[in-house]
């Protein structure tokens, strides 16, 4: 019988939160849990900023005419939305918040391998973020998040170099995080915690880290080349200077396609944890789910040119990249089937994190299948650069990544803060997010197939009805996202005190107190069991009632 | 083409619909059937390799049908039939400039007859644009510094949206227009309304005005290669490579002659980068291509593609 955590103690025990209250103790901390909270606050700020821009986009598109703002303003608004969400929210969100907090806890380590580099990661991220905010406040950028040349190097007079610098720094933050995770997972696992006993969240973060350190330097180089061409007129991408604009797209997507897996893989890891806990079972086909993460990370590097089927690449290159793109479909499908199979003969309860996991499976299935449609070249030629693509990647990025993140945040909130969130409100917000999300983005699939191009400030009137539906959905979605913001903050003071293991979950992170002490474990745990040994843990109704 | 794309799309929708329904039903049924009931515990199940293989292989096969069908359509979309009528397109921020071979020019409108294969030869004067006609289910990016092509056959008269689908700056969403599809007789009437000279004639004038004709002679071997009949033929370069003299090759050889020196000739031609506009280039390219047609009647010194590096006379556009 695995030992269950120490019951929550009302007496003020020293933990990572109350171990030092000064600003300095936070800003110069090397505790991975505190750094995770620094990230939590900063990505949340960027999320709501990016969300604000999303609302401006949806409001402008309520009517066919460009009437809420000028065309140039609109172009900047969707660029800010994309850049903030991709580089300052989606890429760091799960690894840097949940990963930072949980990787050492889940493997029974005191901290990450390089605690100071971990702090440096956050400072790089926040410096990049500040530079980006400065760029935004002094005029912004209007290239779209994709920076396509020669528009970005010769066509626009907005501040590309500053935005590039911001993303360059944020990229290094992600390289350092990846490096830290890889070394930590290799070197600092608790005795007995072999690779085939690792939680799937660790496997997912390990695969993600590989992509981070192998892919991110390429975007860094690309940004430098764009800056060099802009500042010194060296012909790299601009055909007017003797460069090749498609070279930029190859380099950009060589990173930015794998970056999609940087975003989604850690969330997939979260979903595996949630489903195991709330079905009270080991994840079906553990080995296949673990290896599918690695497979996605590897295949993800071989498919980048599927973003370029109409860009002017050769006929046969397009066919090869179409073929290879389907290779990512198999490990993704394997995950969905295994999660579904995990439910079989489980003992399933519907706490909020599980609702998010169900939502993830549904939305990711739709996002993945529409991805297969886009990999089918004959279809892609019609729907690429339309709202079909916009809908597809929001299903994966928001329907996937964000559902996983919110599910994980609810699940580990008691561990992170020592407080429970209000379950009824959380269920309501999960429902609003699911309904609002589908209403926002499903009409965009239709909109794209009937021909509405993306990044349009004004559009022909026949597209209006679907745009109105989408905007209506976005307002529901906004409420769904604001609610957790409110009740999470509320719970810090008024939430029920959480036990060490309120979900009766497996996993080393639940075997220490909530919140954990600074060095995580009073004694280094020794692991003698497989991951998700739920058959050895009593269901939680047999224990003290769960705080509500 | 549109109906073929739609047929494939419907197939994908049906497959995706079935898969989505199966996953949704499986999750819902399992989640309800195995909901937590006091006294009933979860049963540990490890997994099953045969199941894993099954649900990897079957999707893989289904995906291969997507791939093959999609690739077949794409192959057709990218292979213009030989009998296509050619139309040149120059994109710039934020308009589409159309030049018909007969000399008619249009802005943001393209008139075409039904039943005729149309091949667009497109380039951009500034940034990347994308020529997108939703009704034809096809789009193609339009790049500065090179040609891309796009072909279609319109079947039903009417006005169809033309959009720019690659973000190109302030008025990206205003960079649209109309594809006007007309019955052949209406089209002939519309075409007769123009007065300008055919594109290849403009090219011919440019060819002598810019001094091309002094070296690229049609009677005897000049300092530059004879251009008769080179279009779409293989050309041997001095580094031993063979390239096809397509539109992009001709274009590059005018703008930047030293990029691909043809075997047997010296790099003496001046670069025309920045000297000729995209419209003039199109006319020159159209003229060079017209030299390959049997009706040109010019003295043909050499009409066979260069095949052996030992021969002194080589097809060359330098």
How would you describe what is shown here?
The complex is a heterodimer of chains A (548) and B (318). Chain A is mostly helical and 548 residues long. Chain A has a single domain (30-542), classed as Cytochrome C Oxidase, Chain A. Helices cover 65% and strands 0% of the residues of chain A. Chain A contains 15 helices and no strands. Chain A has helices at 23-27, 32-60, 71-106, 115-137, 151-155, 160-187, 200-232, 245-279, 286-299, 315-343, 352-375, 377-383, 387-417, 423-449, 464-494. The longest helix of chain A has 36 residues, at 71-106. Chain B is α+β, with helices and mostly antiparallel strands. Chain B has 3 domains: 1-24 and 49-79, no CATH class; 85-192, Immunoglobulin-like (Sandwich), CATH 2.60.40.420; 199-296, Orthogonal Bundle (Cytochrome Bc1 Complex, Chain D, domain 2), CATH 1.10.760.10. Chain B is 34% helix and 20% strand. In chain B, the strands form 3 sheets. Chain B has a 5-stranded mixed beta sheet, covered by helices on one side. Chain B has a 5-stranded mixed beta sheet with strand order 4-10-9-6-7. Chain B has a two-stranded antiparallel ribbon with strand order 11-12. In chain B, helix 4 packs across helix 7 (278-290). The two termini of chain B are 39 Å apart. The model of chain B is unreliable at 295-318 (pLDDT under 50). Classes of the chains: A mainly alpha (548), B alpha+beta (318). At the A-B interface, helix 3, helix 5, helix 8, helix 9 and helix 10 of A face helix 1, helix 2, strand 7 and strand 9 of B.
Brief overview:
The complex is a heterodimer of chains A (548) and B (318). Chain A is mainly alpha-helical and 548 residues long.
């Amino acid at each position: 019988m695995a030992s269950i955590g120490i019951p929550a103690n009302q007496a003020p025990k020293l933990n990572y939160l109350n171990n030092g209250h000064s600003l300095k103790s936070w800003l110069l901390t090397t505790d991975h849990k505190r750094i995770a909270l620094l990230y939590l606050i900063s990505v949340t700020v960027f999320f709501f900023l990016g969300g604000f821009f999303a609302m401006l986009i949806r409001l402008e598109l309520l009517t066919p005419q460009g009437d809420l703002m000028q065309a140039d303003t609109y172009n900047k608004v969707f660029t800010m939305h994309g850049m903030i969400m991709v580089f300052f929210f989606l890429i760091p969100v799960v690894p840097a918040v949940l990963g930072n907090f949980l990787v050492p806890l889940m493997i029974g380590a005191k901290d990450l391998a390089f605690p100071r580099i971990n702090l440096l990661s956050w400072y790089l991220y926040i410096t990049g973020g500040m530079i980006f905010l400065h760029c935004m406040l002094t005029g912004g950028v209007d290239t779209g998040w994709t920076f396509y040349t020669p528009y970005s190097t010769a066509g626009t007079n907005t501040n590309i170099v500053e935005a590039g610098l911001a993303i360059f720094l944020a990229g290094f933050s992600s390289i350092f995080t990846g490096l830290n995770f890889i070394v930590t997972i290799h070197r600092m696992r608790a005795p007995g915690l072999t690779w085939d006993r690792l939680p799937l969240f660790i496997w997912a973060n390990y695969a993600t880290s590989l992509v981070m350190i192998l892919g991110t330097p390429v975007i860094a180089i690309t940004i430098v080349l764009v800056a060099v061409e802009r500042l010194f007129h060296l012909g790299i991408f601009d055909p007017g200077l003797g460069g090749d604009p498609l070279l930029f797209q190859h380099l950009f997507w060589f990173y930015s396609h794998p970056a999609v897996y940087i975003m989604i893989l850690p969330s997939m890891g979260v979903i595996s944890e949630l489903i195991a806990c709330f079905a009270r079972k080991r994840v079906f086909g553990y080995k296949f789910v673990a290896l599918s993460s690695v497979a996605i990370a590897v295949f993800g590097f071989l498919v980048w040119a599927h973003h370029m089927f109409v860009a002017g690449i050769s006929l046969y290159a397009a066919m090869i990249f179409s073929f290879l793109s389907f290779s990512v479909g198999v490990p993704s499908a394997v995950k969905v089937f295994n999660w579904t199979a995990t439910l079989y003969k489980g003992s399933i309860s519907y706490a909020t994190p599980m609702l998010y996991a169900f939502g993830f499976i549904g939305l990711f299935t739709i996002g993945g299948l529409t991805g297969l449609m886009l990999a089918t070249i004959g279809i892609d030629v019609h729907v690429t650069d339309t709202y079909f693509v916009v809908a597809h990647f929001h299903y994966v990025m928001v329907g996937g990544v964000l559902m996983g993140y919110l599910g994980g945040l609810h699940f580990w909130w008691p561990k992170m803060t020592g407080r429970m969130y209000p379950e009824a409100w959380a269920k309501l917000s999960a429902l609003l997010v699911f309904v609002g999300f589908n209403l926002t983005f499903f009409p965009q699939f239709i909109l794209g197939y009937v021909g509405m191009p993306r990044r349009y400030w004004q559009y022909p009137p026949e597209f209006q009805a679907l745009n109105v539906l989408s905007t209506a959905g976005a307002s529901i979605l906004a409420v769904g996202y604001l609610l957790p913001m409110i009740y999470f903050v509320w719970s810090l003071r008024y939430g029920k005190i959480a036990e060490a293991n309120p979900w009766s979950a497996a996993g080393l992170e639940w075997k220490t107190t909530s919140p954990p002490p600074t060095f995580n474990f009073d004694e280094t745990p020794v692991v003698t069991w497989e991951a998700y040994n739920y058959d050895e843990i009593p269901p939680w109704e047999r224990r003290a009632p769960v705080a509500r | 083409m549109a109906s073929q794309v739609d047929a494939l799309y419907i197939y994908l929708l049906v497959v995706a619909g079935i898969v989505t329904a199966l996953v949704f039903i499986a999750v819902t049924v399992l989640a309800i059937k195995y909901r937590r009931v006091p006294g009933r515990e979860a049963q540990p199940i490890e997994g099953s390799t045969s199941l894993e293989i099954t649900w990897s292989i079957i999707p893989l096969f289904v995906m291969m049908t997507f791939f093959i069908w999609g690739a077949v359509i794409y192959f057709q979309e990218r292979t213009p039939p030989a009998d296509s009528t050619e139309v040149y397109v120059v994109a710039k921020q934020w308009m589409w400039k159309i030049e018909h071979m007969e000399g008619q020019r249009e802005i943001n409108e393209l008139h075409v007859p039904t039943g005729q294969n149309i091949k667009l030869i497109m380039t951009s004067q500034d940034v990347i644009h994308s020529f997108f006609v939703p009704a034809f289910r096809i789009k193609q990016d339009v790049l500065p510094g090179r040609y891309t092509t796009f072909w279609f056959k319109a079947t039903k008269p009417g006005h169809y949206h033309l959009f720019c689908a690659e973000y190109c700056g302030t008025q990206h969403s205003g960079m649209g227009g109309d594809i006007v599809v007309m019955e052949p007789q209406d089209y002939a009437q519309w075409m007769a309304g123009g007065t300008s000279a055919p594109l290849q004639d403009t090219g011919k004038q440019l060819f002598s005005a810019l001094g091309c004709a002094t070296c690229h002679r049609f009677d005897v071997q000049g300092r530059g290669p004879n251009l008769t009949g080179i279009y779409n033929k293989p050309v041997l370069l001095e580094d031993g490579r063979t390239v096809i003299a397509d539109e992009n090759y001709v274009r590059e050889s005018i703008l930047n002659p030293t990029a691909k020196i043809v075997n047997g000739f010296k790099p003496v031609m001046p670069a025309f980068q920045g000297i000729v506009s995209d419209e003039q280039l199109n006319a020159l390219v159209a003229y060079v291509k017209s030299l390959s047609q049997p009706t040109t009647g010019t003295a043909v010194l050499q009409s066979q593609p260069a095949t052996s590096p030992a021969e002194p006379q080589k097809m060359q556009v330098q």
